[in-house]
Amino acid sequence: MDLAKLKDDILKGRRRALAKGITLTESSRPDHRAAAQELLAELLPHTGKSVRLGFTGTPGVGKSTFIEAFGTFLTGQGHRVAVLAIDPSSARNGGSILGDKTRMEMLSRDANAFIRPSPSGGTLGGVARRTREAMLMVEAAGYDVVLIETVGVGQSEVAVADMVDMFLLLLSPGGGDELQGIKRGIMELADLVIVNKADGDLEAAAKRAAADYRAALHLMRPKSANWTARVMLASALKNKGLEEIWEAIEAYRAALGQSGELAALRAEQAVSWMWSEIHDQLMDRFRDHLPEQVHRMEQQVRDGATPPGMAAQELLQAFLSGQGTPGGSGQ
Ligand code: GDP
Question: Do residues 15 and 162 both lie within one domain?
Fold first, then answer.
């Protein structure tokens, strides 16, 4: 594989090259992983210039309609928009979010938009890592707004919040009822809450819901000293509120940019990414290296024959001393 050419083509914004680069990061083949890391290291100086947005909401709230409308609004303003996703469940159901070709039909035909479904398979950590790498690649290819979507059901929100500048939560006019279904933790992650479907018969309910959400947010500790989470109304269907939302995103970036908080946030995210890589790779090696011992020890712990702490100690000792099945010291 000609990595130098691939790099050049990605930097020129060629979509096929970009898709190929991302596929390389998603591969589990060790030679592909090594090539992907080399490519990423080469591309790194060209990354980081985008607005990184995380985006969540329960199914049916209007995420794809919103991303389609918002993405199209942004490309209309001269931006280049990449849409990525994190959906750990796609391993189970064969790809759900963004996997469906009928979603975002207009945006997917837009020359200034690039849409990539969630990598499938593996743990949340693995899916998140591949999405992070895809984010760097689209940045190198010149996309200046990156939207990372996830479904509003759990841990993947935390993973997304950990790789973006700003976290947007999409809610529907259901108001207080819906608030019950949304984990408080997800509400706490939000820098911007958007009440979608503020149109027609739903408009009045959307306004009431927005007031409820404002009250709820008011009770939470602000994430940043430089920004107070806002609640805004939108209609993805009628293209309403999109410009105001973009203005709020710019205001957020200005507030955190001037204070140096954005740079500090990204620096911390990079370090925490490094640690999760170490964690994931160690765990993989650990399991590959001592499969029988791990299996035996799990059974002993399950049977109550060995205390978990002691079992962990023994397995770690065996791993660190390079004992166990062939593979040496975990190399
Ligand atoms: P997702 O599951 O969160 O991606 O939601 P979809 O984008 O597929 O939308 C779910 C349903 O809500 C669809 O029937 C949309 O037409 C509808 N919908 C989305 N946005 C709006 C909106 O702004 N107003 C109204 N009235 N309906 C909307």
Answer: no
- For residue 326, report the distance from its CA to the centre of ligand 1, in Å: 54
pLDDT in tens, 229-241: 999 999 999 999 9
Edge to edge, the sheet with strand 166-171 lists 113-115, 81-86, 145-151, 51-57, 166-171, 192-195, 230-233
Give 94-106 pLDDT, tens digit per residue: 445 555 555 788 8
Longest CA pairwise span in the chain (Å): 68
Instruction: Provide the Cα torsion 256, 257, 261, 262; round to 10°.
Output: 100
Residue nearest to atom 17 of ligand 1 (CA): 62
User: Hey, whose CA ends up nearest to atom 27 of ligand 1?
Assistant: 197
- Gap from CA of 113 to ligand 1 centroid (Å): 21
Distance CA 330, CA 326 (A): 9
Kindly state whether residues 1 and 56 are assigned to the same domain. no
The residue whose CA has the least distance to atom 24 of ligand 1 is: 197
DSSP-derived secondary structure letter, 256: H
Residue having the nearest C-alpha atom to atom 12 of ligand 1: 62
Do both 115 and 211 map to the same domain?
yes
Q: In total, how many domains does the chain have?
A: 2
pLDDT of residue 305: 95
List pocket residues of ligand 1, CB cut-off 6 Å.
Answer: 57, 59-65, 196-197, 199, 202, 235-237
Which residues share a beta bridge with 148? 54, 84
Tally Cβ neighbours within 10 Å of residue 211. 13
| Residue among 55, 237, 239 whose CB has most ligand 1 atoms within 8 A, to mutate | 237
Radius of gyration of the chain from its Cα atoms, rounded to whole angstroms: 22
Assess contact for 178 and 212: CB atoms under 8 A.
no
